[in-house]
Design brief:
With 258 residues, this protein is of the alpha+beta class. It contains five helices and four strands; from the N terminus they run αααβαβββα. It folds into two domains: 111 residues; 106 residues, no CATH class.
Length: 258
């Protein structure tokens, strides 16, 4: 078989021309398109990576803000709880103080009421004792209560201890005009004549006596010299009765349970 080298050469040239044309007008645009697409994909991936990084950053910031908000909320709640507890304690203390004040006022009112009751009982008892003693002495001894009081006072004056008499004598000597006879009733001239020499003898002086009526003595007579007293009156017995009554009646004015 004979080879037509002209034809082979022409086909070779045609093939080279075809390859060049393909490379020139087909492969290079395709490669450029592929390169451009790769660059676009790379750019999109880079952009996506940047956006993902931004998203992660934003997520981290959001979580940090949430955590800070939770901490702030917990702090506010703790402060509110503490303030509420403090306010509760303040109100309780204020209520306790108010209750104590009310209790103190009530206690004071009860004590004043008890004091008033004791005073009323004392006054009533004095009157009753005065009337009973007067009637008893009148019925049994046929003598007035006043005369009996004078006799009792003179007996007390005679039986006074030396220390008491010395004190009275010293005070009377220092101020003779200070000797005073106080009585619950108006003394008659006869009663004064009986008392005056006995007092002068006890004081060892001839000083003139002052006379004064003092109903609060409750049927009693006393000698007062320079503020020192010597005498007797039913109030002494009433004071003892009052002490016994105070043991029976408590400060609230109530009789204690046995």
């Amino acid at each position: 078989m004979l080879i037509d080298w002209f034809t082979v050469g022409a086909q070779a040239v045609n093939f080279l021309i075809l390859v060049w044309l393909l490379r020139r007008f087909l492969y290079q645009p395709i490669l450029r398109a592929i390169d451009a697409r790769e660059e676009r994909v790379a750019a999109e991936l880079a952009d996506a990576t940047a956006k993902q990084a931004d998203a992660e950053k934003a997520r981290a910031e959001f979580e940090a803000k949430n955590e800070a908000l939770d901490q702030a909320k917990a702090g506010v709640l703790a402060q509110a709880t503490s303030e509420a507890q403090a306010e509760r304690e303040r109100l309780l203390e204020e209520a306790r103080q108010t209750a104590n004040a009310v209790g103190a006022r009530r206690q004071k009112a009860l004590e004043e009421e008890a004091k008033s009751l004791r005073t009323t009982l004392e006054e009533s008892t004095r009157k009753e004792v005065f009337e009973v003693v007067r009637k008893t002495l009148t019925d049994l001894a046929s003598t007035s209560l006043e005369d009996r009081m004078v006799e009792t006072f003179l007996a007390r004056l005679k039986t006074a201890d030396d220390k008491t008499l010395q004190s009275l004598q010293q005070l009377g000597a220092a101020d003779p005009a200070s000797a005073l006879i106080r009585s619950a009733f108006e003394l008659s001239p006869d009663q004064r004549q009986r008392i005056e020499p006995a007092v002068q003898s006890a004081l060892n002086t001839q000083t003139s006596l002052q006379w004064e009526t003092a109903p609060q003595l409750v049927s009693g007579i006393e000698l007062v010299v320079g503020g020192h007293k010597l005498g007797w009156n039913i109030a002494d017995y009433l004071a003892t009765m009052q002490r016994h009554l105070g043991e029976v009646v408590d400060p609230a004015g109530q009789v204690p349970s046995p």
